[in-house]
Design goal:
Chain B: Keywords: Cell membrane, Lipoprotein, Membrane, Palmitate, Signal. Chain B: InterPro entries: Bact_solute-bd_prot1 (IPR050490), SBP (IPR006059). Chain B: This is Sugar ABC transporter substrate-binding protein. The complex is a heterodimer of chains A (321) and B (443). Chain A is built from 16 helices and two strands. Chain A has 321 residues and is mostly helical. Chain A has one domain: MetI-like (MetI-like fold, Orthogonal Bundle), CATH 1.10.3720. Chain A is globular, with a radius of gyration of 24 Å. Chain B is α/β, with parallel strands linked by helices and 443 residues long. In chain B, strands 2-1-3-12-4 form a five-stranded mixed beta sheet, sandwiched between helices. A three-stranded antiparallel beta sheet of chain B has the order 10-5-11. The chains are: A mainly alpha (321), B alpha/beta (443). At the A-B interface, strand 1, helix 8 and helix 15 of A face helix 4 and helix 17 of B.
Chain lengths: 321, 443
């Protein structure tokens, strides 16, 4: 569910695309610049307070370590240790394997999710407007349900002790384990796909609606059937939105947290505390109490996410042109 | 079903679990005589955070009797209480006292967030069991007053034990033998449960075996995850895994109680605070359970484990003497304990004082047991047997989180307990040394 809204409001690349530079008073010169700055002030204040300051704080923390002495019970000292934490993060096998796991899993899951969303959007594009409204609203419901609620709902269905599915299977002398090996990823992927289909479908569908209808007429005159129109006319014209939804989903996957954390309650053997980078960071900060190390991990994750988003955008953009 | 306690469950977004956790609280004590006259003078008001049911009423009783030392009760129930408490200490707005479990008391102490009350607390030491006093004195410095204890004992399905021809196990070897026998009779039956997220089973077993993962020795720690005692405990876990004798229901699973209620798992280790929960959660197996002493490693040296609930004195508290006095009254005076151990108070508290006999009878639920064993005696025995060697080290929380990571693999059979212990040994010593704390490997 982090898929979209949260990432829409904060793409990690924003930090490099500094709005401060744009509204630089020197360039515009004179009094007008001050006025401009005044207009930008509400944004700047918010940006500084909710972005720059917290990131600066995290960076400062990531350069520190907590030291004790003697038996270790008593006052502690915070000392600066340079980039020692970053050094440890870079060689932290658990951290990087959680990153790789999330990326591999995310790639497959996003492809499946967007494939279904695209298919549904194309179907909707072909039917009457009234039906469109109904299906659109219906498919959006899973997205509107808060993450925690929908995760808990699936948690009950997957639960090895409480699930009605297990009860039903047991009646015909069957059993199925929703976790362990590949099943863990299928179960989690199912939950994420269920949550994300509707939202992505809406975006794709809106993009389809915006296409000029004349294109289809022209294609029809050339003898194209509906599926051919979809494949050769519609899809090539909406690659922009596909790239965008793909990127948002990718960023969302790298920040995957609440869903696996909740599912861990019923599958602790399969979903470890370092299953995703965010879970690892959470564990380091709030379970192990090592805020400094967690801050370094967060910054590394932010940078990796930023780079991946940038690379993804570049590659897909080049392909399009 | 060892313990729901502890950070293992910080994820408890499930509301039902919050309720369960709320029951995991308590306070205890003996006392009544005010041996230590407070050394601070004048009127004082102390803030006290707790989330134990029934404590607020006790605070009112105290306030009526002690006009000089007024206590302001704050109900701090919630998943993030320890985070809030940390923030409050750093901001200088911390309460004087707060409820915390033994593990968190050690964590807070290690982070320098508590006040050393060794001197002012000394007069109350004699009221509590040595194991309870250990829990508030990590590294030998006292930072709080014990509140309650949760000594471990066994509950088993007497009807199914009879059906499968096994008896209540006296030792852990008996548990394994009984597990094998039961499985021969019915391949779907497990003798025990070990949750994949909760290595507290290993903590309890090691404690019972007499192991000392952390031992303060002068000004250094001797870290010993691989002593013969620790390995003995690890071996029991390994056998349960290898022979597939334990179920793996997660304690956070909303349907966890069914594991026992439906007779799939027929024995568990449990404790006082959990007893009231069973009456409501075991609808099918009500009246079929019986209590027994916890399985032992050495019948000549019977030892069980516990987890303690404490009242910590936070950094910046201006009246540590009165804080200690109040906390000791709350958890050791007959006046306070009689009320708090009454089921009507809903505190779920089991005292950490030396003599628990006046309070035992009341806490035993009536519907769960078949009445064939003396439950009160089992509980009293457990309380008297808690091993007093166990200590929490200054990086216990970080070590626990590391252990949790590996524990899942042990449960899956991907890692041997022995290897996990060896790696924890190295990890713990390195981590302590990295923090500037003297530590050596014990074996």
């Amino acid at each position: 569910m982090e898929t979209s809204v949260s990432t829409l409001t904060r793409p990690p690349t924003a930090a490099t695309d500094s709005p401060v530079r744009r509204s630089s008073p020197r360039r515009a010169g004179g009094r007008g610049a001050w006025k401009g700055l005044l207009f930008a002030l509400p944004f700047l204040v918010g940006f500084l307070a909710t972005y720059v300051v917290p990131i600066g704080f995290a960076f400062n923390q990531s350069l520190q370590e907590k030291k004790s002495s003697g038996l270790g019970f008593g006052p502690t000292q915070i000392v600066y240790t340079g980039f020692a934490n970053f050094g440890s993060v870079l060689t932290d096998a658990a951290f990087w394997s959680s990153m790789a796991r999330t990326l591999c899993f995310g790639t497959v899951q996003i492809a499946v999710m967007l494939g279904i969303s695209l298919f549904l959007a194309l179907l909707l594009d072909g039917v009457a407007a009234r039906a469109v409204r109904f299906f659109r609203a219906g498919l959006l419901v899973p997205y509107v349900v808060p993450t925690v609620v929908s995760s808990l709902m699936w948690l009950f269905l997957y639960s090895p002790t409480g699930s009605p599915l297990h009860d039903m299977l047991a009646r015909v002398d069957l059993d199925f384990d929703f976790f362990g090996g590949l099943n863990t990823y299928l179960s989690l992927g199912n939950l994420l796909t269920w949550q994300g289909i509707g939202f992505n479908m809406i975006l794709i569908s809106a993009s389809l609606q915006a296409l000029p209808r004349e294109l289809y007429e022209a294609a029809r005159l050339d003898g194209a059937r509906e599926w051919r129109i979809a494949w050769s006319v519609k899809i090539p014209n909406i690659t922009g939105i596909l790239v965008l939804t793909g990127m948002f989903s990718l960023i969302g996957r790298l920040q995957l947290f609440a869903e696996p954390l909740l599912l861990r309650q019923i599958a602790p053997e399969s979903i470890n505390t370092d299953f995703t980078p965010m879970m690892e960071i959470y564990d380091k900060a709030f379970k192990a109490g090592n805020y400094q190390y967690a801050a370094a991990e967060s910054l590394v994750l932010a940078v990796v996410t930023g780079i991946l988003a940038f690379v993804f955008y570049r590659i897909t953009n080049r392909k399009m042109s | 079903m060892s313990h729901f306690r502890s950070s293992a469950l910080a994820t408890a977004t499930a509301a039902s679990l919050c309720l369960v956790l709320a029951a995991c609280s308590g306070s205890t004590g003996t006392g009544g005589d005010t041996a230590a006259s407070p050394s601070t003078k004048g009127k004082a008001t102390l803030e006290f955070w707790s989330w134990t049911e029934g404590v607020e009423a006790q605070v009112k009783v105290w306030n009526k009797e002690h006009p000089e030392t007024q206590v302001k009760f704050v109900n701090a129930a919630g998943d993030t209480v320890y985070q809030k408490l940390r923030a409050a200490v750093n901001a200088g707005t911390a309460p004087c006292l707060s409820k915390m479990d033994g593990m968190n008391l050690a964590n807070f102490a290690a982070d320098g967030l508590l006040t050393d009350i060794t001197k002012v607390a000394a007069p109350y030491k004699g009221k509590y069991t040595p194991a309870a006093w250990n829990a508030v004195s990590p590294g030998g410095t006292t930072f709080g007053i014990p509140m309650g204890s949760s000594p471990l004992f066994t509950a088993y399905r007497a009807d199914l034990f009879q059906k499968y021809g096994i008896e209540a196990p006296k030792t852990w070897d008996d548990v394994i033998a009984a597990g094998k026998k039961a499985q021969k009779e019915n391949k779907n039956v497990k003798i025990f449960n070990m949750a994949g997220e909760d290595p507290s089973t290993l903590v309890d077993l090691s404690w019972q075996a007499g192991a000392q993962w952390y031992k303060a020795d002068g000004d250094r720690w001797v870290v010993d995850f691989t002593s013969p005692e620790a390995l003995k405990a690890g071996d029991v876990v390994q056998q349960l895994v290898d022979d597939n004798l334990a179920s793996s229901a997660s304690y956070a699973d909303p349907g966890v109680f069914k594991t026992w209620d439906l007779g799939k798992t027929i024995m568990m280790t449990t404790s006082t605070w959990q007893l009231p929960i069973y009456d409501t959660n075991f609808p099918k197996s009500k009246g079929k359970w019986q209590l027994a002493d916890a399985p032992l490693f050495d019948t000549a040296q019977p030892r069980t484990s516990s987890s303690f609930d404490t009242t910590g004195v936070l950094k910046g508290c201006k009246y540590p003497d009165r804080a200690a006095e109040f906390a000791a009254w709350l958890s050791s005076s007959k006046e306070s304990l009689t009320t708090l151990t009454d089921p009507a108070s809903k505190s779920g508290l089991f005292p950490a004082v030396k003599d628990v006999s006046p309070y035992v009878d009341k806490i035993i639920p009536t519907e769960m047991f078949n009445g064939k064993s003396d439950s009160a005696e089992v509980i009293t025995t457990a309380a008297s047997r808690v091993g007093d060697q166990w200590q929490y080290g200054p990086n216990y929380a970080a070590m626990y989180s590391e252990m949790q990571k590996q524990w899942g693999k042990v449960m899956k059979g991907e890692l041997k307990v022995k290897d996990m212990l060896a790696s924890l040994q190295k990890w713990t010593v390195d981590d302590l040394n990295g923090k500037g704390i003297n530590a050596v490997a014990g074996s």
